[in-house]
Specification:
- It is a single chain.
- The chain is an alpha/beta fold.
- Helices cover 34% and strands 25% of the residues.
- The chain is built from 10 helices and 16 strands.
């Protein structure tokens, strides 16, 4: 890729760089076990497809994945039942280690997964995927099984879908408006990562259990920052997974996500912050404007190894 830093060029792969047979051999030779973790909140419409397709192709047929675990993050729909029927082991986040309390959020679900999974390699996938394929999983595992890297990010064509129209590379609004500018300002060593907020990534358990984990949507960026600081950028790799589409968040919800990401970076550049932030947003009601104030949780969990 043009003008890419040396480490970036060396650590960027394509999902079909490895055959499934080669990965299975590497898994066996290294004595590895693999957990697929799917954090989910109100994703009954899509989580069953994610689980069943991976289970059929990569657990029952190829035996690349040893367990599929869905962490239900306070869903109010049938996510738990749908994921169970599809063949996953399903846990309610609030019921895992209740002695440690519970917070809402994706990062909390991922952190709690460390107490109920057994794989030394962990693959994370979002539950709301609508245009994807099971090659995501072996693609992410390739660098972990064949090299000493510790964390692998996926990247892909990510379209923005509006009605019947699609704009191929216009998805990822929080990435472009928040995460990438923050990286440019504070963490330029991460600038070679194409999609730092990608929900599809893989990590060695030994690293994941050592990281502080924001309970919300900042988990992905925080993991990258903390890994580079502790181990160096040579511990990172990224894999082109092709194309990925999912349900888009409402604009105000993106504001909450951005707040959590900004809070995590604020802490990592030496700032102090409370465990919640009051975010004022506005709604137009005819000629009137109403203020909507939301308390955005920005709690971080201590490394899971502290509690294991």
């Amino acid at each position: 890729m043009t003008d890419a830093p040396e480490w970036f060029a060396q650590a960027t792969y394509h999902w079909n760089d490895w055959s499934l047979e080669d990965l299975l051999a590497a898994k066996q030779a290294g004595g590895h076990s693999v957990s697929l973790v799917v954090p989910a909140r109100n994703e009954a419409a899509t989580v069953g497809d994610v689980v069943s397709r991976v289970r059929t192709r990569l657990t029952e047929t190829a035996q690349l994945i040893d367990e599929i675990v869905v962490i239900d993050s306070d869903s109010t729909d049938d996510t738990y039942e749908v994921a169970t029927d599809a063949g996953a082991m399903v846990y309610r986040s609030a019921e895992i280690r209740p002695d440690l309390g519970s917070y809402p959020g994706k990062g909390e679900a991922m952190w709690k997964s460390l107490f109920v999974t057994r794989g030394d390699l962990i693959v994370f996938m979002d539950a709301d995927l609508t245009d994807w394929d099971t090659h995501f999983v072996p693609g992410l595992l390739g660098p972990l099984l064949t090299s000493p890297v510790a964390l692998v990010k996926g990247f892909y064509e990510r379209p923005f879908v509006s009605g019947a129209s699609q704009m191929p590379y216009e998805g990822g609004r929080v990435t472009e408006l928040v995460a990438r500018p923050l990286i440019a300002l504070h963490f330029p060593e991460l600038a070679g990562l194409i999609q730092p907020l990608a929900g599809e990534w893989a990590v060695r358990r030994s690293l994941m259990t050592s990281l502080s984990v924001p309970t919300g949507y900042a988990v992905e960026l925080a993991a990258l920052i903390d890994t580079v600081r502790a181990r160096g950028k040579e511990e990172l790799a990224q894999v082109n997974l092709g194309r990925r589409a999912h349900r888009h968040q409402a604009l105000r919800d993106l504001g909450a996500m951005a707040t959590q990401i900004l809070a995590a970076v604020h802490r990592r550049v030496g700032g102090e912050i409370e465990d919640s932030v009051a975010l004022a947003q506005y709604e137009h009601l005819g000629d009137d404007v109403a203020v909507l104030t939301r308390d955005i949780p920005v709690v971080e969990r201590d490394p899971a190894v502290t509690w294991c």
